[in-house]
Design a protein that fits this description.
About 50% of the residues lie in helices and about 30% in strands. With about 190 residues, the protein is an alpha/beta fold. It has a domain at about 65-180: Trna Endonuclease, Chain: A, domain 1 (3-Layer(aba) Sandwich), CATH 3.40.1350. A 6-stranded mixed beta sheet has the order 3-4-5-6-7-8, sandwiched between helices. A two-stranded antiparallel ribbon has the order 1-2.
């Protein structure tokens, strides 16, 4: 066998190998296309699920807010402090400070701020003290001299969060059956 014959056979073997590679690449491309289609379907299903879950979360939050707002409008008290008026979903905007307050209670010299959550987390208690209270004072300076009382309301409270809030002197508002319960040992903020 001559050198030229060996080269021709090598070229033929390469061509056959190239055809096999091309066929395998075509199969791989088809599998990738199917995978892309399946991923697109999965993404669409996840987006739909996220919308559903988000809607459920929003509805649960609204239900909690409605329950506590109705209860506080009927019995205008935080702990032993009585209030004359209750405002719901009070919004304020001043410069870079913008906030919404779920329930705000007023009397001649006191303000009660109640944050409502479906499930209360430790960060909710922290934010009530460190952000919500400060934002309210910044947005509504006419209440600067008022005594402030804080409340955290929720349908679900881990025991450690109840203890944390009560230790801070914050009213813990919980649903028990069809009624609202809360502690009375509050402090002025």
């Amino acid at each position: 066998m001559t050198r030229l014959d060996r080269i021709e056979r090598g070229i033929e073997a390469l061509q056959i190998s190239q055809l096999r590679t091309d066929a395998q690449l075509a199969k791989t491309d088809a599998q990738l296309a199917k995978t892309d289609q399946q991923l697109a379907k999965t993404d669409a299903q996840l987006a739909k699920t996220e919308r559903i879950l988000s809607g459920i979360g929003i509805n649960l939050g609204h239900a909690a807010e409605e329950f506590f707002a109705n209860s506080l409008q009927k019995n205008k008290k935080l702990g032993k402090v009585k209030f004359d008026a209750v405002a719901l979903q009070l919004k304020g905007h001043k410069g870079k400070v913008q906030d919404e307050f779920d329930v705000v209670m007023y009397n001649g010299n006191s303000v009660g701020l109640v944050e409502v959550k479906h499930k209360v987390h430790p960060s909710d208690v922290d934010q009530l003290i460190t952000r919500k209270l400060l934002n309210f004072k910044a947005l509504f300076p006419k209440y600067a001299d008022a005594a402030f009382y804080l409340g955290i309301a929720g349908m679900s409270f881990p025991p450690e969060v109840v203890e944390m809030a009560e230790n801070e002197g914050i009213a813990v508002l919980r649903q028990v059956g069809n009624v609202l319960t809360m502690n009375e040992n509050l402090r002025k903020f």
